[in-house]
Amino acid sequence: MSDSTGPYAADFELDGPPEAEFNPGIARRMAHKTVAAGALIRDPAGRLLFVVPNYKPFLDIPGGIVEPGESPSAACAREVAEEIGLELTPGRLLVVDWTPGRGPWSDQVQFVFDGGVLDPAAVIRPAANELTGFRWATLEEARPDLRPSVHRRFALASRAISAGQTFHAEFGHLLSPA
């Protein structure tokens, strides 16, 4: 929440009143990055759940853009519910990856959370306004339908699950364990 009524109300109270802007307009002139969050969801066979967006030519994982005042984990849960109809509590943070701006998209900070292993009986309902479907595939099976940088990010996320670590990356290249 961006105000003092949400889950961090006590923290807002402890921090005191908002900081005054000493140079009027400076905050509006500063760069703003897009933040996105997604869930790496697996089936019992270890395949990954990919969504097929109707607004770009590549596969992705369930997730999306973090709204102003929303935390990345809350955005992940909201986006998974909106995109595929699953109520999910995001697990451990697997990867934080910075991606440069490209085409119509600004540079982004991407959070990938552990979405867990989905029960085979779970019903997946792709949102028709965003997706044309979904697909279960191994990372290698999906490789032709992923941008190389996205493939690298998801490979790091898969590695983070087995390593029990969180990775810091830029453009899908590992910088360090966080």
From TrEMBL:
SUPFAM superfamilies: Nudix (SSF55811). It comes from the Bacteria. Residues 32-162 form the Nudix hydrolase domain. Keywords: Hydrolase, Magnesium. InterPro entries: Nudix_hydrolase, NUDIX_hydrolase-like_dom_sf, NUDIX_hydrolase_CS, NUDIX_hydrolase_dom. Its cofactor is Mg(2+). CDD domains: NUDIX_Hydrolase (cd18876). One of its GO terms (molecular function) is hydrolase activity. Belongs to the Nudix hydrolase family. This is Nudix hydrolase domain-containing protein. It comes from Dactylosporangium matsuzakiense.
